Amino acid sequence: MALYTNTSGVGGILPEDYGNLIVKPVSRDSLAYQLSTVVQTGANEFHIPILGEDPTAAFVAEGAEISPDDVTLSEDVVKPAKVAGLSIVSREMANDSSPAAQDIIGASIARDIVRAVDAAYFGTWASGPAPKGLGNITPTPVTGDEAAYANLDLFEEAILNAETNGTPLTAFVTSKATAKALLSLKDESGSNRPLLGVDASSPTRRTILGVPLYVSPHVEDTDNLVWGIPQSRSLLVQREGAELAVDRSVYFTSDRVAIRGIMRLTFAFSDEAAIQKITTASE
């Protein structure tokens, strides 16, 4: 059955705002949300303007005519896709109105959705139902000649590429294995000092040349892949609201309750060339 604020017997299971149970935990824990600019939409489609070429400005003499120049624009149309999580809890927990019980239920649903969202963001999907992620775009390649990273030259190149494009990188993201290899790099031969920087205000936060480094299990562990992401060019388009449904009959014999959470979202990359794909040579 659908869950409403006046549904008898289940009022304690959820807060009044669905966002507190699903949307907020997902946006907090999903790396795709952290790396992107989040856009809310109430429409079935969202139109992303794509800038092809800036207008050309020039100095002109006093009183002289200014030559007009048009902006080259196109657009990408994206549709938020449905992502759903299912949690099974005891009837006792479902009827518990305590904040702790609500947090446990919300965390369970949110974890399922976070995994699906991040897998889609870093994945390659030929067609639905998942939205197209980084594996479907044409980023700027930054490829080294060696089979492993020996220094941070490629990352410097990626940062310069992005800056030249007017879009500074806000994050590097890689797999656990590649991050481990990068963390083992030292600042010089015979030294135990790591080459990667550490944020003094947050000792567990690692940086590469000042850009935060994140680790995700959904990044391919191939050719030491590291993504360079500018947040302004990575959009996460979220359909407003979330849906929740409760079914007390599907697990009737064990007296458990099924709780389903649904969100609709998609990704859009307004400037694919601004995103950097850093790899080493194939082994």
Q: What does it look like?
A:
This protein is of the alpha+beta class and 283 residues long. The chain has two domains: 11-51 and 70-131 and 236-267, Major capsid protein gp5 fold (2-Layer Sandwich); 139-234 and 272-279, hypothetical protein PF0899 fold, CATH 3.30.2320. The protein has seven helices and 14 strands. It has helices at residues 18-21, 23-29, 31-35, 91-94, 99-122, 153-164, 176-183, and strands at 37-41, 46-53, 72-78, 81-90, 140-143, 171-174, 197-199, 202-208, 211-215, 226-229, 234-239, 243-247, 256-269, 276-279. The strands form three sheets. The chain has a seven-stranded mixed sheet. Strands 1, 4, 11, 12 and 13 form a five-stranded mixed sheet that branches. Strands 2-3 form a two-stranded antiparallel ribbon.
Secondary-structure blueprint of this entry?
Layout: H1 18-21, H2 23-29, H3 31-35, E1 37-41, E2 46-53, E3 72-78, E4 81-90, H4 91-94, H5 99-122, E5 140-143, H6 153-164, E6 171-174, H7 176-183, E7 197-199, E8 202-208, E9 211-215, E10 226-229, E11 234-239, E12 243-247, E13 256-269, E14 276-279
CATH architecture of the largest domain: 2-Layer Sandwich
CATH class identity of the largest domain:
Alpha Beta
Q: Span from first to last CA?
A: 54 Å
Q: Helical proportion?
A: 10-25%
**Percent of residues in beta strands?**
25-35%
- Biggest sheet layout: 7 strands, mixed
* Widest sheet, order of strands: 5-14-10-6-9-8-7
CATH fold-level topology of the largest domain: Major capsid protein gp5 fold
Chain oligomer state: single chain
The CATH superfamily of the largest domain is Major capsid protein gp5
- On the 0-100 scale, what is the average pLDDT? 83
> What general outline do the C-alpha atoms trace?
globular
